[in-house]
Task: structure prediction
Amino acid sequence: MPSDLQPEIFFKPSNQSAPARPEQNLLQAAQAAGVGLEAPCGGKGLCGKCRVRPEGEATDPTPGEKALLGTRLADGLRLACQCAMPAGGQVHVPPESRRGEAVILTSGRSEGLELDPAITSHELSLAVPSLEAPEAARERLFAALAQARGQEPGQGFDLPMGLLRALPGLLASGGGRLSAALRHGREVVDLRPAGASPALGLAVDLGTTTMVAYLCDLSDGQLLAVSAAMNPQAPWGADVISRISACQSDPQALGDMSRAVVESLNQLARDACAQAGAEAERILECVMVGNSAMHHIFLKLDPASLAQAPYAPLARRPVELKARELGLELAPEAWLHWLPLKAGFVGADIVAAALAVGADQIQEPTLLLDLGTNGEMVLAARGRMLACSTAAGPALEGGHIGQGMRGAPGAVERARLAKGGLPLELSVIEGLPPVGFCGSGLVSMLSCLLEAGALGESGSFDHERAGEHLRQGDRGPEYVAAPAEHTGHGQELVLSAADVAELQLAKAAIRAGAQVLMEQMGVDKLERVLLAGAFGNYLDPAEARRLGMFPEVAVEAIEGVGNAAGVGAVMALLSLRQRRRAMDLSEAMRYVELSGHPLFNDLFVDSMPFQNV
Amino acid sequence: MPSDLQPEIFFKPSNQSAPARPEQNLLQAAQAAGVGLEAPCGGKGLCGKCRVRPEGEATDPTPGEKALLGTRLADGLRLACQCAMPAGGQVHVPPESRRGEAVILTSGRSEGLELDPAITSHELSLAVPSLEAPEAARERLFAALAQARGQEPGQGFDLPMGLLRALPGLLASGGGRLSAALRHGREVVDLRPAGASPALGLAVDLGTTTMVAYLCDLSDGQLLAVSAAMNPQAPWGADVISRISACQSDPQALGDMSRAVVESLNQLARDACAQAGAEAERILECVMVGNSAMHHIFLKLDPASLAQAPYAPLARRPVELKARELGLELAPEAWLHWLPLKAGFVGADIVAAALAVGADQIQEPTLLLDLGTNGEMVLAARGRMLACSTAAGPALEGGHIGQGMRGAPGAVERARLAKGGLPLELSVIEGLPPVGFCGSGLVSMLSCLLEAGALGESGSFDHERAGEHLRQGDRGPEYVAAPAEHTGHGQELVLSAADVAELQLAKAAIRAGAQVLMEQMGVDKLERVLLAGAFGNYLDPAEARRLGMFPEVAVEAIEGVGNAAGVGAVMALLSLRQRRRAMDLSEAMRYVELSGHPLFNDLFVDSMPFQNV
Result:
């Protein structure tokens, strides 16, 4: 067949190409074409780094892509390792996906994600006992395991009583053949008939608001399914402080909140397994991350100390227990592993996010920010890491804002200066009539109002420039974003001066926290800002920068890194090396307490103006 | 004070003496006098070897002495380490208690019992967290533990969730001071207010018929109390085969039998603690021994394989689990450790007995015998050990004997040739009118009847010599031991030809088993026979020898060693070195299967006559 009939894939802007092969994904095609794509996870669909924009017919998005790309999918972005173009076509490779160009994300990641899970599976054939050698069933199992692993015959293992009780039945029905799963090469955590389906693992990011579960095949590291739900602890309060208070005022609350999450997690595991055609009892390990309050409440540890100086957690390094102890319905002998916390307000989620972005290897000054009620952040440079938590408050999540709301249908998610002036054009989630502002919408509103001159750097409305769009409300002047007849709830949609002040406090807290870390590390200028979490993906970097949310940084150096905490949890699930690295990283990270810090208050006041200096 | 007014203790027959000091026990006095007494446990009241006969006023017997000496106490024997003579007097030292004279029991025991339990206790004072060093409570506990143990500060430990949950309350009430108990220097198994009472341990010998619990102080190795009860599994059958069958015919039986023993064991622990003024929740470890069927049933392991060729157990090496998993009401985090089994019919009890007598160090050919339904035995010589089990049947425990019974009040326990002929004089337990024969009584009856010529070596009654004392019963000729008017049940007490045949089969099985082991090891002659278990203590060595129960051995070389299995369990509780030694010993021991053994049947037939050749 002449080569001009063979479909080709052309990579832009480098103009390299490779033949389109149906069995090859775009990452493999890029490798064939000599295009260096970021793929620290080795093409397992985990790191979300090999983003490309196919300009032609491509295969359908996978669950992993949906989880990792979110709304960027709609923008045409895909993960090269999860996507193929059997008929060929053009593929645009954005600069951040080119290996060697995104310096920070490359550093320390080039080794890729080696599959090295705590759980290993073995197909065994046990010796048959005889009168001459009447060896016990358990010891024959151990000998077969040692042989399968190339160890000394006398190698000891641990076998839980439940599995020992099941062993004779398995041996009788299988003629001495069975599948065994080992954890850390030591404890037998599952026994089943020979030829069992692959062992599964679950990585969970337990957020204050949402919880996400990633189901992985531990035999090949593939992400099989992702499921998500709202954290069912909302009735006890929207933020961690409310929930900690609930534990102090009601002795039942701790157990009730833990149970609520356990039940949701059981449902998430079943959902993910249903997507993957698997069974939850094949899940042999669950790795969890979340903030320190979620950690304590889930584990039924009194969170009181988290809310009182010196804000010390009860346990900081990894906590391990049998999943069934909390009522998780996974394999009966499945283990739960919580990644380490750093401090009372720097949780396992930020440790996992730091792992996901390779903060321990970053050379150029980089700020990793998890925006939320507590703005947790890590400043990384030259292998050093400083972490702090600022009480940013819930404004950036729409909390404490007159008409604030979460990023749900009906929320204003973006504003735009139309015809060079007011009123602002609004983008609303799912195109509905607006009913409120979500975090990214608020940032966008402020940015546009600043640009239009209707809002001053001090945070005061300019009555002249705002003109007819400003009115006097109960809590001071208000910008009317939409008249009652255009909204979903039949009321005017307004942004008040009080709302502006809330956002100003939040952004000042974040910026001042970052500056304390920079002072402490002796860093003058940030080279990169990485925004973790869903909010980071929705936020427009230029808008956030215009508000002065971060110390000065180039707009193209601000990047959303998706659910980095979840990615870090998956990395720790699939690789013990990464799990140890998370531990080392959390030990190496220095925690900076901002309350009472001599610099913080001055920097906080200096950070109040809406300006990027 | 002139020395002739100072009370003295004189040791016989060596005529050495030492001053009587109220604070010194007789073992210490013997040391002061230069008398070498056997004391492999180092004077902790565990080994029962420092037996002496005080001939003067002595302190009251301790619970440990009652347990270890049994009826020998009534004979005037005492343990030197548990007994004092504040007013002085004479002390007779029997040959077997003199160090260096009882060669076998000395070998390998001279190092004494070093206290080295799995559980260690530590009084800790935790660092106070501050804003500068807001370290987590668990990590501060670990740092204090590492410091207390002279380990690196980063040393990891395991802390069960239940204890982690209790930690903040303990720290708050104790101002950072607390007591911690560690197992194997790794897992925290108890936390309590500072200055806690000593950690306790329980050693349990779970026999088919009786169960005995030994409560020990793990801080100094002292035996605090002993409690005993009948094994409550009797309703499922008197012997292990009946109980294994019960499991096969009734799916509930396994769980029910396990639960019954667990409840009895909880009661034994409470009883022992009540004696010692202690609390069962201070028991942090329980070491158990018993035969393989008791092991399996207690652990809810299907015992079916024990009763079918090749008689392989489900687990042979030590089994460990949290005691609470079975419902044991000890400390919440207490562990249970079963010593290793050797084979389906050579259990952890015989392994523990072998440990207690130091079988791994024995040089001169020695037979260790645990007489019971299964005559389990170990032949030890020159550091080698062979073990087997013979189906001796229950005759030696009074089973399958027309008027057989256990060693309870009313049982004939000894017979004597009065006036050189028949009728035999009977000794009955508690001096009651007789109602049956217990094991030692049966052996004694046969021995006397042989001596009187009323019974021939072939096992047939001699009608002429037995004369009027013989009558014809339903099952053949019967020796009338007591007329109806002299018995406790108003019936004649008889020993039938069928009873004699049962006993003959039992003794032939034991002797043939021992001879197979001797053949296999190339041993011509035994230098010593050690009888373990209560029966061994009651049996008259000369009588047993006259029946030809053992291969030829000098009568003074036959010795009861008490509840050696229980002593071995205590040794393994108090010393990890002994626990490892039990493991090594069980691995070094070779198991000889008698069923189908080419020599056994011929030797069995040859062993039928009642003669000691």
Remarks:
- The longest strand of chain B covers residues 210-217.
- The first helix of chain B runs from residue 26 to 33.
- Residues 100-111 of chain B have pLDDT under 50 and may be disordered.
